[in-house]
Structures are given as C-alpha cells and as structure tokens.
Amino acid sequence: xxxxxxxxxxxxxxxxxxxxxxxxxxxxxxxxxxxxxxxxxxxxxxxxxxxxxxxxxxxxxxxxxxxxxxxxxxxxxxxxxxxxxxxxxxxxxxxxxxxxxxxxxxxxxxxxxxxxxxxxxxxxxxxxxxxxxxxxxxxxxxxxxxxxxxxxxxxxxxxxxxxxxxxxxxxxxxxxxxxxxxxxxxxxxxxxxxxxxxxx
Length: 200
What we know:
With 200 residues, the protein is mainly beta. The protein has a single domain, classed as Roll (Pnp Oxidase, Chain A), CATH 2.30.110.10. Helix content is 14%, strand content 38%. It has helices spanning 17-20, 65-73, 86-91, 102-106, 172-175, and strands at 24-25, 27-32, 38-43, 46-51, 54-61, 75-79, 110-112, 119-121, 126-136, 148-160, 165-166, 169-170, 178-182, 185-188. A seven-stranded antiparallel β-sheet has the order 3-2-6-9-10-5-4, with helices on one face. Strands 1-13-14 form a three-stranded antiparallel β-sheet. It has a two-stranded antiparallel ribbon with strand order 7-8. A hairpin with a 5-residue loop joins strand 2 (27-32) and strand 3. It starts with 16 loop residues before the first helix and ends in a 12-residue tail after the last strand.
C-alpha cells in the first residue's frame, strides 16, 4: 500500500498516521489561568527536544486551554503518566469549558510548583516544571500556517517520587509509563529491556 497525504486515500477505516508514529509520550500539562483557574490536559503531540538546555514541546490543533494559560502566564508543568494514573488522565481529557478544574474532575490533587506558579499532579511519579521559551505555528510545504500551536518550554525544576528510583536511576518497570499508540490505543511500558550501543 502507498498513498499520498494530499488526498489521504488510504482505503482504511481510520487514518493510520498517528498509529505509525508510535508510541508517543503523553504530555500531561498542568497550567494556571490569569484568572487563577487551573487546567490539566493530556497531549500526545509532546516530547523532549533537547537536553542542554532541557526543552520540551507540546502541540495541538487549535488554541486550547493549556496553550492559552502557558502563553499568558509563561509557565506550565508536565506530569508523568503512569499505569496507575491512566484512567484519571483519560478523565482529564474531557472537553469541558474554560475554567473547569480537571484536577477535581479526575479526583487528583493539585499542588503548586516549587519554581513555577502552575499546578502539578501530586500523585504523579515525576513532574517537569517549565517556563515558556517560545510558541510556533508550523507551516506546510506551501508556506501556509497550520492549525497547530506548538508551545516550547525549558525545564527549570524536576520532581521525582523516590519510590521509582532503583540503583541510582528511574526504574521504568516500577514507573510503568503509558504512551499513545494511535486511534484509542495505549501501551504500558512494563516490558523493559536494556541494550547498549555497539562499540565499533
């Protein structure tokens, strides 16, 4: 099978693009509005993009509540989605009005960051506290602006629950991170194996 994305005629019941680019980490973004309201929402278009400095990015089609809050306040948190929180993460994805507290909706505890005035999930195994460095609207091949809004943030603080630390590093078999696989599919990272880079 081959198809061009300008027509998207793949003949399948659902677009396979997101399933091919998988697994994708979930950016569970906590933010506070200028009015003091809190917001929590998951983004599967999310990733770490740099280690020096530590930079992350999240993106979605349209100007969502997380983008609005992050741009207006300059701060957000990214909360680690583990297997024990995945159902609550899903609840926080509900399309609700601006100002609705998704922490309360999902039965989660919101705490304010050490370095940023943005809420984080107290039950999460790890949290990245971020300050916005820039926003970007990516362009297509024709130069037209897409519908997507990308928010970049520099990680200024990291919180880790020490129960997932073993032998001086995070034990992913304990942390059990969850990733998005496309469609309504998710995967859970308990099947962890190690490989070392070859020395040639």
